[in-house]
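Repro:
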Amino acid sequence: MTSVGPTPDELLHLAVAAARDAARLVQSGAARGVTVAATKSSDVDVVTESDRSAERLIRRSLLGARPDDAILGEEAEGDQSDEPGSSGVRWIVDPIDGTVNFLYGIPQYAVSIAAELDGEVVAGVVLNVATGQEYTATADGPAQRDGVPLRVRPVVPLAERLIGTGFSYEARQREIQAAALLRLLPRIRDIRRLGSCALDLCGVAQGSLDGYLEEGVNLWDHAAGGLVAQRAGARVQSERGVGGRAIVLAAPEGGFDEFRSAVAQAGYLASSGS
C-alpha cells in the first residue's frame, strides 16, 4: 500500500503552532532584557540566547510531531544546523529574522518557518513577534495576513516604486552594496531598510513595498516570506550578486522584468546584462 504524504495545509498547521510557541518564548526573552550571546560572520552579526532557545523549541515541536523530517536551521550549532531526514519533508527555520532589531527593541523581527516537500517549498509562516501579525501561505492556496488574503500593489512606473533592501554584516560587502544603491536610488521613489528579509518579502506581498532586493541572505531568511510573496502575486528570484553571493529579488509579476533590469544596470548582479 502506498503511503500518502502530508498536505501543505497539514504542514502549515504544524509550522504555525511552532511559530506561535516560539514567538511567546521570544516575547518573554524581550521582557527580561536582550543581550548578545555570540557573533557569527562579523562583530555586528549577533546571536541572542532567545535565538537559540527559540530554535530548540521549534525543533522539538516539529520533530515531536514528525520525527523522520529533516530540519535546516540558522542557530543550531555544528552538525545540528542541517539535520537529515527520510520523509521527503524538510523544515527551514529562522527563529528570529531581524535579530539586531530585536536587540535594539525595534518592532520588526519575526519567527520564520517553511516546509519543503521533495525540494519544493509548499508551506510557510512568518510571524512578527513584536506586532503579532502572522503571514501564511501554501503552494496551492492564497497568501494571508491574519487570515485575510493578500495581494501585491498594482504595478506603477519604476520612478514611483518603494523598494526594500538590506546590507551585509561584512564591511567590504557593504561597500559594494552601497555603490550599487547610489546608482539605483535616483531611478526609484525611495529605499527602505527595515531589517528583516522575511518581513520585507511579506511587505511586497501586502503592498507596503513595491519590490525587494538583498545580496547575502540565506535560505532560512527567505523561504517562508518568498512563498508568501509568490502566492500574493510577486515573482521571487535568486541570482548571483556582484559580491559573489546569492541575491534575492522580489516584485509584482507584471513589473518584475523592469525592476530586475534596473537592478542589473545599477551593478547589483554578477552578470551585467539586463
